[in-house]
Amino acid sequence: MTPIRVPLLTSDQIDRLPDRAREVVEYRKSGLSLNHIEGCPLDCAYCIRHTYGLWDQRVPRALMTDAQAVEELVGHRYFQPHVTPIQVFNRATEPFLPAVRPHTFAVLEDLDARGLRNHVLVITRHQMKPDDIDRLK
Ligand code: SF4
Question: What b/e string do you get for 47-68 counting C-beta neighbours within 10 Å, with b at 16 or more?
Fold first, then answer.
């Protein structure tokens, strides 16, 4: 079965986003954080997506493809291969929502295919399936 993926925003829709929400790669928590998907239906009281102007964005949407996002990450001026700690989807979506999960794995597998050994942080509140855990290993 083809995994559900999130819709890709048009350039006009992206232009209407708040400035901070358009920044796909940013310095956070002593590393670089990749966030090309934004929106979450969960209501964690501690969520920070309101600080990006996205509190009402409950449906995950993509600003670019996973391949483009990984290119932006590894091409970022602060990215050092094998050194810079990376975080994936840790500001405005949940990386293991059913629709976001394929994107999380696409990013991780792209980084892995490049032979990169950077530490990667993925934080989830969602249910992990045995297949997810095997794939992460
Ligand atoms: S799972 Fe993450 S993005 Fe979703 S509401 Fe909770 S903290 Fe916010």
Answer: eebeebbbeebeebbbbbebee
